[in-house]
Amino acid sequence: MRDLSRDTGLLSLNTATIGWERTIREAVEACEKFGIAAVDPWRHQMHAGGFAENARLIRNAGLEVTGLCRGGFFAAPDGAGRDKAMDDNRRAVDEALELGARCLVLVVGGLADGSRDLAGARRQVVDSIAELAEHARPAGMPLAIEPMHPMYCADRGCVNTLGHALDICDALGEGLGVVIDVYHVWWDPDLETQIARAGRGGRILAYHVCDWRRETRDLLFDRAMMGDGVIELKKIRALVEGAGYDGPCEVEIFSKLDWWKRPVDEIVRTCVERHRSVV
Amino acid sequence: MRDLSRDTGLLSLNTATIGWERTIREAVEACEKFGIAAVDPWRHQMHAGGFAENARLIRNAGLEVTGLCRGGFFAAPDGAGRDKAMDDNRRAVDEALELGARCLVLVVGGLADGSRDLAGARRQVVDSIAELAEHARPAGMPLAIEPMHPMYCADRGCVNTLGHALDICDALGEGLGVVIDVYHVWWDPDLETQIARAGRGGRILAYHVCDWRRETRDLLFDRAMMGDGVIELKKIRALVEGAGYDGPCEVEIFSKLDWWKRPVDEIVRTCVERHRSVV
Fold first, then answer.
1. Which fold has domain B11-277?
2. Which option is the CATH number for A37-43+66-250: 1.20.1090.10, 3.30.70.260, 3.20.20.150, 3.10.100.10?
3. Looking at CB atoms within 10 Å, which of A156, A230, B117, B164 has the fewest?
4. Predicted-complex ipTM score
């Protein structure tokens, strides 16, 4: 298991961590200030102020890009909605290429509005990823399926376990992998087996950390800083590294209720401290 | 698949549905008024005003008791805490026997306070259920493990899929089964397989219904009335009945944010209507 206690070379900052309303410029400046080597930007932040300008900021800072968040949200009630979603996903692939990102993160989406057809939504997700892979594979951009915690099944992602995501990878072949985010998978009784399986297939494209607050107050916006919750972070990282993953640990914290209210410096300084001590 | 459209003989009212602060007397009176044949009472409601008196009310109304909620919460940080939890669980078995309940529902509990040891908590759960079964099995009271939605893994229940619960049943033998509550399991990509497995083993001791609100506002207290959410209720009931379950459908709705604020009559009338139309 790698020693993270002495440097930040294996820390990536997901730009949502400083707050969804803050800018890529703020994220890049914080990375430079605290010696962070990599980022994973969100697309709406990249487009605020201009994608090209933000891409230039990241490039000039010499930051690695561990992913682009996000493609996905494939479920659509009709053909027109689906065409629109696919067009946007192809643009996301192109943006990931422009950034030289390691992967495009896919949050696959839940049920279409007004629908209860979960099996149908899952079929649509598989079909859509297959179609998107026809664009991404020849361009060399890996698609990273992020299994979502089951509490997001209806509204954010209907691929809900690592095993489920790997089944889709196996079905669709090369150019696909997974994001393992501890927040989504820590509870899974099959986690150890599925991490090993992901490693054997060379499917682990990214590893995301944060923590689960024992008394979670909000389904989306109450993630905890690493060390402030109940997830066995070092144990899971050992499994992920044991499965062959050698990339950065990316910090992704959605915390409208706490961290996003704080100054960027305090957030990022704490990320660095916790990365060194508890991740 | 059974036709529920014409009667309430297959409807059981979990007494939490009318609100945790309301009484067994109110629940029993509502059952009599609306022709409901069965209840599943919560222990704190049974003890409010006296267990014996509440048991008498249920018996005199001729109500079947589809379960007693609940035993469990086994995780304890030390030996004294564990002894106390086991004593309380044995009392719960005795109370279930006194009520002639079909089963004692087990919400197994999450991590002990201050602990992150999920594997240890799960071992403690298995050991505790094995010990409790020594008391319950000779007395003829089935123990019904209720797999909890993964969002409750830390604080309410660290058995998080139906397959996980059935693994424990298989390991511990006779006298054990499961509660299938749609709220906890609807998202599971392995649901169909595991319901069939539960049926083959004769393990389905109870079937609970409510609904999942697409935009869930609270992890515990925002369950929806059947028909107001996204769960494919008839599809899941067909699987459960196809697996051999022939008992009542029990309505269990925790809804501090909505239904618990309404009059008992309105809640129970709606349960009956939805039981006939969408369950």
1. TIM Barrel (3.20.20)
2. 3.20.20.150
3. B117
4. 0.96
